[in-house]
Write a structure and sequence with these properties.
By secondary structure, this protein is an all-alpha fold. The protein folds into 3 domains: about 40 residues, no CATH class; about 140 residues, no CATH class; about 210 residues, no CATH class. It is about 60% helix and about 0% strand. The chain contains 22 helices and no strands.
Length: about 475
């Protein structure tokens, strides 16, 4: 029997980083956890006193070497991490010995929590929810594994918050604690190196998808916080190969969509010459549309400000803004994605279909937003209905042909459904076509509520332009 005096006194975090665990009398957590804002827990198994058996000693030495090498990283991967990242990841599971090595660096977790972490990082059934198709799986997992090793103390709570949010009730409850800790880390994070930039992206991406899963009004706040941290730094495309660009565009596209709906200013304009031709796992061929959507969001805010300077709900008819808007309309109308010659051979038929769907519905949604900035809801409905029909029909056809909902079409879906008066039809479209809604009922309910508020305002007020949505949705989380 282990005597009570032999039970380890250090908390799990201090134990994992080999720091002295200091306590103040009557405190509920140690000084270090209090200082950095982490949960202070001691859940690791109690060890037998005395010298461990030889096999454990060998694995401990191996683990110690790994952690030592990880802790010496200074913006450049060590040889150990290079070996792990360069190993084959094309199958559904990383090589078992490598993945066990990765998990051995993680602080003590229950078997259930480790299983969820394994699934969130390493399994196709999870990865397919967030990237277009299998051509992007390998690079996506490589970056997750890399940061689990190189930036574990920064990103782990974010990984676990999202992973646990997909578990049972007890795990979902624990996910909120992990999310709170991850948000504190994000808010106090200081970006100083290239590794910090990518770690910040990975952390923000996981918190964002935790919010998508469990609900809440922090989508815009999380995107803004993450992108504001990396904005002052040189984040030209040379730093972002396709996998990292996927995480970046996911945050940028989500923030821009929220800003267009709530009439807010986006944080970051992603306008890199080489990056505009990248095909990534989030927005596919639509990368070059991101700076134009940013500019459209700015015009939206300008029109709202002009309207408010006069009186509520009047037409913002300044000629300079109307000229800008017409230029944007022509730009979106004439936009064509950069399609490489090997596009149809490099990607699967499903991926090609989904990316082509993305391009058409995103382009059409931008044109419909511009139409509603020029003409209030309830007028010029023929053109608006035609745009909405193109969006809904294209998504419907893609789902019918491929059996899967395309990624990053939720903004286009919302824009189209704002033209659909029947609430039952709107709910059915959202249930069938929302990529995020396919794994988050909370997100579906949020968008249903958003559209209901807009339609209620349309019935109350004689004139509602797109730039009025910010006022309508200001109390909406």
């Amino acid at each position: 029997m282990i005597h009570e005096s032999q039970v380890p006194r250090s908390c799990d975090r201090c134990y994992a980083v080999k720091e002295r665990c200091q306590w103040v009398a009557d405190a509920v957590q140690c000084e270090r956890c209090t200082r950095v804002g982490h949960m202070c827990e001691s859940k690791r198994p109690i060890k037998r006193p005395g010298r461990p058996p030889a096999p454990y000693l060998q694995s401990s030495v191996k683990r110690a070497k790994i952690v030592t090498q990880i802790d010496t990283i200074d913006g450049t991967p060590t040889e150990l991490i290079k070996d792990i990242i360069s190993s084959p990841l094309t199958s559904a599971i990383v090589d078992a010995s490598i993945w066990k090595t990765v998990l051995s660096t993680v602080e003590y977790l229950s078997h259930r929590d480790l299983a969820l972490l394994d699934r969130a990082v390493n399994q196709d059934d999870f990865t397919q929810k967030f990237v277009i198709g299998p051509s992007f799986y390998q690079a996506h997992r490589q970056k997750l594994v890399f940061h689990l090793l190189s930036s574990r103390q920064i990103v782990l709570d974010g990984y676990l918050a999202f992973a646990l949010s997909c578990g049972d009730k007890i795990q979902v409850k624990d996910s909120y604690k992990r999310a709170a800790s991850a948000v504190l880390t994000l808010r106090s994070f200081q970006v100083k190196s290239r590794l910090d930039i990518t770690s910040c992206l990975i952390l923000g991406w996981h918190i964002l998808h935790f919010v998508f899963k469990v609900g809440g009004g922090e989508l815009l706040e999380i995107c803004n916080q993450t992108l504001s941290l990396i904005k002052p730094h040189d984040i030209s495309e040379k730093y972002f190969e396709t996998a990292y660009f996927t995480f970046l565009t996911s945050l940028v596209f989500t923030e821009t969509a929220e800003c267009l709906l709530k009439t807010k200013l986006p944080t970051l304009r992603v306008d890199y010459p080489a990056g505009s031709n990248q095909i990534n796992g989030c927005v596919g061929l639509c990368t070059s549309l991101l700076p134009d959507l940013y500019d459209l969001a700015l015009i939206n805010v300008e029109m709202q400000n002009r309207s408010q300077q006069k009186q509520d709900w009047v037409v913002a008819d300044s000629s300079d803004l109307q000229a800008k808007l017409e230029d944007m309309r022509l730009k979106f109308r004439d936009w064509k994605p950069h399609v490489p010659e090997d596009f149809c051979t490099k990607f699967t038929a499903l991926e090609v279909s989904h990316m082509l769907c993305q391009t058409q519905v995103t382009q059409t949604a931008a044109l419909l937003i511009i139409h509603r900035l020029q003409h209030p809801f309830g007028t010029e409905d023929g053109t608006a209905s035609a745009f909405a029909s193109i969006i809904l029909s294209q998504i419907d056809m893609t789902v019918h042909i491929t059996g899967k909902t395309p990624k990053c079409v939720d903004l286009s879906l919302i824009v189209a459904c704002l033209e659909v008066e029947d609430e039952t039809e709107r709910a059915q479209r959202l249930r069938s076509f929302s990529a995020i809604g396919s794994y988050s009922d909370v997100f579906q309910d949020r968008i249903k509520s958003l559209m209901a508020q807009v339609w209620a305002a349309r019935r109350r007020r004689p004139t509602v332009y797109w730039y009025h949505l910010g006022d309508i949705l200001s109390p909406f989380s």
